[in-house]
Amino acid sequence: MTKFGDLIKVDIPVLIDFYAQWSDEEEEPTGMVLKDVVAALGDKAKVIKIDIQKNEILASALKVKANPTFVIYKNGEMKWRHSGEQDANTLISLVQQYV
């Protein structure tokens, strides 16, 4: 299992989607948005989804209270954070600021 610190201490931007899927049948709404972000950014950034229900200690340590919460890290430092839905173009633009 990869440690969180290892995930974010890289020299490319890391966009993390902290989410919770309340039902197995429920389609996670940011899924398609993140696919577009990954397609647009390629290997210039990493995109990671972290389930806050399965990672409660991490979510608590980072004070993640809303679903979804997006965070951008670069070189281990938090650069941007927002709770609530975001569209693909906004996320792409934000991540590109740190490429």
For the record, give the distance between the C-alpha atoms at the N and C termini, rounded to a whole number: 26 Å
The radius of gyration over CA amounts to: 13 Å
* DSSP, total strands: 4
The CATH topology corresponds to: Glutaredoxin
> Can you count the helices?
4
- Any guess at the CATH architecture? 3-Layer(aba) Sandwich
String of helices and strands: HEHEHEEH
CATH class call: Alpha Beta
Number of domains: 1
User: Overall mean pLDDT score?
Assistant: 91
- CATH superfamily caption: Glutaredoxin
User: Which class do the helix and strand fractions yield?
Assistant: alpha+beta
Short description:
The protein is of the alpha+beta class and 99 residues long. 32% of the residues lie in helices and 25% in strands. The longest helix is centred in the middle third of the chain and has 12 residues, at 30-41.
What does this structure look like?
The mean pLDDT is 91. The radius of gyration is 13 Å and the shape is globular. The chain has four helices and four strands. Helix content is 32%, strand content 25%. Strands 2-1-3-4 form a four-stranded mixed β-sheet, covered by helices on one side. Helix 2 (30-41) packs parallel to helix 4.
